Every structure is written in C-alpha cells, then in structure tokens.
Amino acid sequence: MNVDLQLKTGLSMEFDEAVIAIGGALSDPGNVRQIATGLHNQEPLSGFSTWQPSSYTIGHPGIAAFLFRLSWSDDHWLTSAHAHVEAAVAVLPKESQIGISSGPGAVLAALTVAASHPRRDLYPLLRNRLADWTSEHHLSSISVLSGKPVSWSHYDVFSGPTALTRVLISILHALKPDSRARAENAIRACLDYLVQLTQLVDAHGSLVPGWWVDYEQQQTDDDRNSYPHGDLNAGLAHGIAGPLALLCLSKEAGFEVAGQIEAIRSVSDWLHNQRRINVDGAYWPCRVSWEEQLGRVVVEHPLTRDAWCYGTPGVAWSLALAGRALGTPSLTDIALNALREVLLRDPSTWRTDGPSFCHGASGILQICRRAATMFSDQGLESLTFKSAKALLAQQDDDAPFRFRHVTPATHGGWSKANRFDYLDSPGILIGGAGVGAMLHTLTHQTKEGTGDWDSAFLLS
Ligand SMILES: [Zn+2]
Predict the structure, then answer these.
(1) Would the pTM of this model clear 0.70, i.e. be above it?
(2) How many angstroms is it from 323 CA to the middle of ligand 1?
(3) Cα 398 to the chain's mean position, in Å?
(4) What's the angle, vertex CA 50, arms to CA 370 and CA 390, rounded to 5?
(5) CA 236–ligand 1 middle distance (angstroms)
(6) Which residues make beta-bridge pairs with 281?
(7) Among 109, 117, 128, which Cα is nearest to 175's?
C-alpha cells in the first residue's frame, strides 16, 4: 500500500465517524429548527437569522440533500431526509423567488440528490411537479431580467438563474419526457441570457463587459460609495465566475447555444487578466471597479478571499473548467496550480471564516476534491486530504451540529474583525450539513453525470 493510499484509508474512518455524528445531529427537523432559531444564532452585526426553513442554503432542503447523499450507501438515512423534505414542503412560500434561495427550486435541488439514489426511485411525482413549476417560473423570470439594467442579483448563484439551471440539468435524467422538454427550454433560455451578459456594453462612454453593474444597481450605500461608476464582480457566488462555471458544465452535459464558446473565452480571458501574484502565489480580487477596468487607477492590494464564494478557489475552479471547454490545457494548469498554492499555505493564513462551506475551509476542500478528480491530479488530492485532517480538529463535542459557523462580530468586514461569534448553524451553506457533505464527498465519489449536493454550487 503506498503512502497516499494509507493516508486516505486511515482518514476515511475518521471522516466517516464525523459525518455520521453530524448526520445524527441533523436527523430531527424539529430539534434542528429549535436550535437554529435560537436568538444566539443571529448574525451579530445585522441581526439576520441564519435559518430560513424552505431555503436550500440555510434551511431544510440543503440538510435533506446531505442526508440523501448518506442514504446512497445506507437507507436508514432516508427517514430523516424525508422528514426534512416534508418540513420544507410544509412551509413553501406561495410566491417563490427566482433561483434556489427558497421555494420549489430549493426543494428540487434536494431531490436531485434523491434522484441519484442507486437502488430506489424516490419522489417521482413530486420531482416532475416541482420541475414543471420551476421550469415555467424560470423562463418567465429570465425574460423579465433580460429587459432590466444588470444587477448583481441577475447572475448571483442563488438569487439569479445559474444554480437552478444547473439543478434542472442534474435532474433531467429522472424527468418524464414532457417535463424534460420544459426543463430543456428553461436551460437554453438561461444560457442565451448569460451569453448575452458577456457582450460589451457602454458604461459612461466606454465599452466594458456586460456584467458591469452601474451605481444605481449597487445594493448598499457602502457599494455606491466604493463604486461610483459601478463595478465588475469576479467571484463565483456573486460574480461572473459563476456563469462561467455554468456555461462550461452545461457544455459538458450537452447544452450549447449560439455564442457559448465565445462567451466562455471572453469571460475566462477577463478573469485570467485579473490574476495577481504575491509571495504566496496567484490570487484574484473580489471586485474590479469601472476605473480599474479602464486602467485609470491601479489598486495595489485588492480585497480577496480564499473561498468558494470569493477569491482564488472559486475563480480557479471556473478557469479550470474553461480550459477544458476551450481545449486549452495551459489555462487549466494555471488554475490547478493556484489551488495547490492555497493548500500549501498554513490554513491559519487562509482568508476564510471557520470550517463551513461558503467562505470557510470546507468550500476550499470541496473545490480541490472535485478538481483533483476531474483532472486526475493526485498531488492535489493528497494535499486536500491532509488539509481535511486539520479541519477535523475543529470539531467541538459541545456544538449541537459538531462544527460551528464563525462570523465577524465587529464592524469593518471579515478582514478587519477583531472579534468573532460562533453560531450553531445547521444548513449546507454555512453550517454542519455543508461540512458533513464535504467530508462525505472526500471519500465517497460520485459517478459521472450524477446529481449531487454541490451541483447547486456549480461544483458538479
Ligand atoms: Zn461566502
């Protein structure tokens, strides 16, 4: 047995123990809801709750997705997965928003994992009904977006159309022919919209990429002050790296609309041009102002992250996919090298908050695991396992969901915070379910073409 195999075999048992403990802690929806809605689980600065029952990211559907994944090898998890589906369906809002933030799209995202169960045909009626509803709603939402000035929410993974489009592709294989045809229409409409978003537009008298968001469409006063002529967002969760990943993954799944390859090329060229190098290696800024885009100012040390949502891991993943879609292995090599450079650093230097998925260590590890598998990179795989072992040390026997979500408790953002709160968050984006799902993915790989919990995060 070689060293890497020994390492993986030994760690698999440790990972499985942690995963089973997290799964058990999340089994009872009533208990989960009671803890999650406790006052101490509010974001300390905004007062926002970290729980929304029908949300894929911070509610029952994401937890169900994690438990369905566990059920692929042990059916006893189906009871608790189903209990979370029931709890989500019971609170589905009458008016759903676009995407998977809440409502039918969120439950459908969980059912993509159920539809990949190797021995059972789960929810055949519900998944077709939800797919029909979301396909129709998706089409009309995209047509509304097409006529409006671009805002970050138009291509944000959760509140925009990208995650739901990936979910529809992932569940296509399990839909009836008429439902499949409706879903395919919605998928193509989204791809057409995203291709259009990459065309150059006029911004205050200069041509810039079409995902530029002007002053009026900025979300907060801080953003309007920071970007008086608008900006271009580079991240995976809220920026153009998300649509790039979707355009590439869709092409691999057989969906290609007019202009898609050119769009992949122009976005990946732009992202490649944003790459910065420091002593640690390559990194990417979170956002690029109109002034920077036109070369009127130079920002020496732009704000960055080492996370799924923002910074190197998410952007590098999208560029690795783009290299494959374009037949440009040198681009994929640059991206994989950037991922290795993150893992080679001491985790204490990662620009992340705690162990959870979105902007924590689990997001880095999930991306590196997927990239190592897709590109057969054994060096990256070994580094990922070693970093995951370090993550296990953050387990807390007193935490109800085994891992706590770390969030800044002082103003100035994560980079300036000098005090943090530790929340008991159960969900897949910033809670225990996300850490558990990542640990399970490390040692239980997905078959090609199988819908998985991270399809909604554009990682499979
Ligand atoms: Zn985040």
Answers:
(1) yes
(2) 25
(3) 28
(4) 40
(5) 10
(6) 278
(7) 128
